[in-house]
Specification:
There is one protein chain. The protein is α+β, with helices and mostly antiparallel strands and 474 residues long. Helices cover 50% and strands 12% of the residues. Strand 8 and strand 9 form a beta hairpin.
């Protein structure tokens, strides 16, 4: 069900969106380009006073971004409580910003404003040598051998969780998927011995994730930001308390693996670094996988012919539980997974801040500009994808490969040095759950139903995504 916070944001967002359209602020440049540079000024407008365009964007990110693209071009600016922010759209902007050959765009400074208080120390919030050092060690936790081990841990937990799913005419798919994957993250990442503390650990984690989405960004007791900070403190205390035993053991859960992980030259993480990476990886793996799996299932509900095709493919595999090598034996599932990631990018934006005067797609950006690249709208734009709003998994099939029009046309996992280190883990987890779902259940949504979206790490169902869930006979 839609929460009171979500209903309030959506209601205010609708008003803000109307205000932005009906009473637009005058178009102004972000900053004047240096004389003789040949660079274009970034144009935009603040929107309504104080909140600017922020609530309009939260209300309908796709419509807002498309309007910016149409009115101002591939780089524009908009306003919010924190001031002005540039919005970049398109694969050319993605390549320039994410590859960052000129070292002008800081991920640390970009992301820290949004999620820094809750996920500082995470690899996404690092730059240059620091980022390279941490990523080299983290790679040891995501090798093929480690992924196979995580899948072995994950499989029985998926089975146990789905055993508890009961057919219903209004089964809250997103809500139940979030619960399932949070339990998986707690058990598989932290270790099965968490026991009775699991519920409190999960609650602290959820509060930390929500903290970055707070509208009131101040530690007011009882509000989202304050609960997020308290959740971060609980997670730190828990992981530090459990860490000595993990270092001394030989477990296969991620926590244990990070305690022992080392780079090729023998570099290892300190205790505080292990804790920071655990908190960040749990957020990154759980939240994005929840969106990916939920929206993939939603699309299969809207297109039952594809659901039946994938079910037949899974049945033909002849086994209820996937091994890692089986992932390549489900090609149709991979096509649908890729299309779901295109239509509903789980990480719908990439944030950076300029550390020096620079240019992006010929537009001038002064030092200190926060830049938001729109993965979501780029992959939903007819400028770069034919009939972009249409569900068409075969656009990824050999012979078409529309994703090859540009190396950053399809970039749901980011790119460059910061390309998601857990992309294979995420895909493996989503497909392992979907395989078992297809063998157990059939699901549908009413004709004409379109999921209402709000904004989290990416486009997120605002109503829990109710489906009709039926158990397969036999």
């Amino acid at each position: 069900m839609m929460t009171m916070r979500t209903r309030t944001v959506r209601r205010i967002g609708r008003l803000a969106a109307r205000a932005t359209v009906r009473f637009p602020a005058p178009t102004k440049p972000l900053a004047a380009p240096p004389p003789g540079s040949g660079l274009k000024p970034v144009l935009g407008s603040f929107g309504p006073p104080v909140l600017g365009t922020s609530l309009a964007a939260l209300h309908d990110m796709l419509a807002f971004s498309r309007r910016q693209l149409e009115e101002y071009g591939e780089v524009s600016w908009a306003g919010g409580p924190s001031g002005k922010m540039a919005l970049a759209i398109g694969p050319e902007a993605a390549e320039q910003m994410l590859i960052d050959r000129d070292r002008a765009f800081s991920a640390k400074r970009g992301w820290s404003f949004i999620i820094g208080p809750f996920f500082h120390g995470g690899v996404m919030l690092m730059d240059l040598e620091e980022h390279h050092h941490h990523r080299r060690i983290l790679q040891a936790a995501f090798t093929r051998q480690r992924l196979e081990g995580y899948l072995d841990l994950t499989t029985p937990e998926i089975k146990r969780a789905l055993d508890g799913w009961q057919p219903a005419p209004d089964f809250a798919l997103y809500s139940e998927t979030k619960k399932l994957l949070l339990e998986l993250a707690t058990e598989v990442f932290v270790g099965t011995e968490v026991g009775p503390e699991a519920a409190e650990l999960e609650r602290a984690f959820v509060n930390a994730v929500r903290g970055g989405q707070a509208i009131v960004r101040a530690p007011v007791p009882g509000l989202t930001w304050s609960r997020g900070l308290r959740g971060r403190r609980f997670l730190e205390e828990y992981f530090l308390r459990e860490l000595p035993a993990k270092r001394a053991g030989d477990g296969d859960d991620l926590f244990s693996v990070l305690c022992r992980a080392e780079s090729e030259d023998g570099q290892r993480f300190t205790d505080d670094e292990v804790v920071a990476h655990m908190i960040f990886v749990m957020m990154a793996a759980h939240d994005t996988s929840t969106i990916a799996l939920s929206m993939m299932a939603y699309l299969l509900a809207k297109h039952p012919e594809w659901q039946e095709w994938l079910r037949a493919e899974s049945q033909a595999l002849g086994k209820t539980e996937l091994a890692y090598a089986d992932l390549d034996r489900l090609p149709s599932m991979d096509l649908v997974f890729r299309e779901a990631m295109r239509l509903y990018a789980p990480v719908g934006m990439q944030l950076r801040e300029t550390v020096k005067d620079t240019e992006l797609c010929g537009y001038y950006l002064p030092t200190g500009t926060r830049v938001w690249f729109g993965d979501f709208v780029t992959m939903r734009s007819d400028r770069w994808w034919p009939d972009a709003d249409r569900f068409d998994p075969e656009r990824f099939a050999e012979g078409r490969r529309e994703d090859k029009s540009h190396r950053f046309a399809w970039a749901p996992f980011g790119g460059g040095a910061h390309k998601c280190i857990g992309l294979y883990f995420g895909g493996m987890t989503v497909k392992a759950v979907m395989h078992q779902l297809l063998l157990r259940f059939r699901w549908s949504v009413p004709d004409g139903y379109d999921v209402p979206l709000t904004w989290g790490t990416g486009p997120t169902p605002a109503d829990g995504l109710p489906i009709r869930l039926e158990r397969l006979s036999g």
